[in-house]
């Protein structure tokens, strides 16, 4: 269920913020990305009964896509050896999380 993907995102976000190890950082970002991708195949309880092609479900998925592109920016940075820059992207993840939770949680 969606709660499971959210728990994975929460744990990975916490690792992203804590670690200074590039390998661990990459692993956490990859887990967060997969969870966000899996969350796209589900729908929040608040949108129960909405059609898959409704504006609300599309908006929900667009917020997850935004998070995924932010994760990709962070992955590029860690792959380029910029651990600090990659970690700094977590501020954008939190902004998207907060925006999304206001709308869909
Ligand atoms: C790094 C980003 C995010 C983190 C760390 C995060 C974390 C969490 C956590 C810890 C919960 C509570 C889970 C539970 O009840 O067990 C939750 C719930 C929820 N989150 Fe997120 N979240 C993130 C991004 C998002 C995004 C981008 C969306 C939507 C586009 C979203 C939508 C929701 C919804 C709808 C719920 C309530 C669960 C439900 O309706 O079934 N979250 N999130």
UniProtKB/TrEMBL annotation:
Q: How is the cofactor bound?
A: Binds 1 heme b (iron(II)-protoporphyrin IX) group per molecule.
GO BP field: electron transport chain
Q: Which residues are listed for heme b binding in this entry?
A: 6, 101
Q: Which residues lie in Basic and acidic residues bias regions?
A: 38-54, 88-105
Q: Which GO terms describe its cellular component?
A: periplasmic space
Keyword list (alphabetical) reads: Heme, Iron, Metal-binding, Signal
The cofactor named in the record is: heme b
Region annotated Disordered, chain positions: 31-54, 84-105
Q: Name one GO molecular function term.
A: heme binding
| Similarity comment | Belongs to the cytochrome b562 family.
What function does the entry list?
Electron-transport protein of unknown function.
Q: What is this protein called?
A: Soluble cytochrome b562
- Which species expresses this protein natively? Izhakiella capsodis
Q: What is the lineage of its organism?
A: Bacteria, Pseudomonadati, Pseudomonadota, Gammaproteobacteria, Enterobacterales
Residue range from the parent sequence:
23 to 127 of 127
